Amino acid sequence: GINAEYGKQWYQRRVRAAQLTTLGKRSCLWLQDLLIDLKQLKATADNLSFRGVKGTTGTQASFLELFNGDHDKVEQLDKLVTEKAGFTSKFTITGQTYTRKIDSIVINAVAGIGSTIHKFCTDLRLLASLKELEEPFAQKQIGSSAMPYKRNPMRSERCCSLARHLVSLTSSPMHTHANQWFERTLDDSANRRVVLAEAFLTADILLNTAQNIMQGMVVYPKVIEKHILEEIPFMATENLLMSMVKAGADRQECHEKLRVLSVEAGKQVKEFGKSNDMLERIRDDEYFGSIHNKLGDIVNPSNFIGRAPQQVEKFLKEEVFPEIEPYKSSFDKEVPRLNV
Questions:
Q1: Greatest mean pLDDT range, 11-15, 134-138, 268-272
Q2: Distance between CA atoms of 27 and 14, rounded to whole angstroms?
Q3: Concatenated DSSP letters for 1-60?
Q4: What is the pLDDT of residue 219?
């Protein structure tokens, strides 16, 4: 699970180094999307209406005949059947079927799970390529049939594959709705039997696989630290500049010196494959003597994460925990077991 400490412990950079964030904050961004999906699914389910007792083409003519023209009895029957079916609302008017617009709304809500999990698993695959994170890896799991050393993120790859399929299903019910002739044509039946079932089954396996990944995810703090230390000198140039100005330096002159040192340090990294020696260059330059004893504090990673830990705590406390409270009884179930 994600907790406040998780939001503070490990820092991460983006694909292109900018400002730092925390792994807890990144995880909460994944969680936020899932939370949106949960709310969307709940709203969709709460707003579903029942077709009710409407007869062959929706006019209720046969029921009006059955009750000898008594409209009140037809309305009462419609209400009773709706309640018996577990619905709180019903359509006032329908055709031969309820509008197939409903299928489209439902599938879109379910497919949101697909885009969310695809995003999460794509991020994880990128982080795995940096060796900062890994999905769970079974003791005898084979990462590649050709290369014994490889540990492909097979669960995440599977999720991305299935998620694309789930997202692609959203267009089909729209076409079905658009191509209804008047009351209905029978060409919707076979399509709906496939699409509706596939959407829910695919969402189910995606959620199970994502849960397996999240509950077994492995973090490598030392690798993250190594990557941060490689980039932090460049990220800190603005802080270095402000510290120098506070110490009495001319801003433009200092900016130029930092620019030149950054270019030289970047050349060492990109052209010669060496470590980032930006801080060593600053320590060796007497121009920066007034902040030499402050360099450690200036480049401390905790100075570059803003309010990420506080945001994590607030988000979990005010948005996540209240939303998942009704489902806590199911949290003790076993982690889904997968064969990969």
A1: 268-272
A2: 14
A3: ---TTHHHH-EE--SS--S-EEHHHHHHHHHHHHHHHHHHHHHHHHT--B--S--SSSS-
A4: 93
State the Cα–Cα distance between residues 247 and 19, nearest whole angstrom.
Answer: 24
What 8-state DSSP symbol labels residue 272? H
**CB-hemisphere CA count at 13 Å for 260?**
8
Q: Beta 11-12 vs 133-134: how paired, if at all?
A: unpaired
Q: Give the pairing type, strands 21-22 and 11-12.
A: antiparallel
DSSP 21: E
Pairwise CA distance, residues 233 & 134, whole Å = 27
H-run or E-run covering 270: helix 251-272
Measure the CA–CA gap between 223 and 12, rounded to whole angstroms.
Answer: 10
Interatomic CA distance for residues 302 and 239, integer angstroms: 13
Q: How far apart are alpha carbons 176 and 242 in whole angstroms? A: 61
127-148 burial string, b = 16+ CB within 10 Å, else e? bbeeebbbbbbeeeeeeeeeee
Q: Which residues, including other chains, have CB under 8 Å from residue 31's CB and lie 6 or more apart?
A: 2, 315, 320
Q: Are 288 and 244 in contact (CB under 8 A)?
A: yes
The closest alpha carbon to 227, from 276, 190, 172, belongs to 276
The secondary element (H helix, E strand) that includes residue 133 is: strand 133-134
Single out the residue of 211, 224, 208 nearest to residue 133, CA to CA. 224
pLDDT of the residue at 20: 86
Instruction: Give the residue carrying structure tokens 């945001």.
Output: 311
End-to-end CA distance of the chain: 23
Q: Where are the alpha helices (DSSP H) in 67-188?
A: 71-84, 101-129, 154-168, 171-178
Helices 101-129 + 171-178 axis angle, to 10: 160
Res. 34: pLDDT tops 90: yes
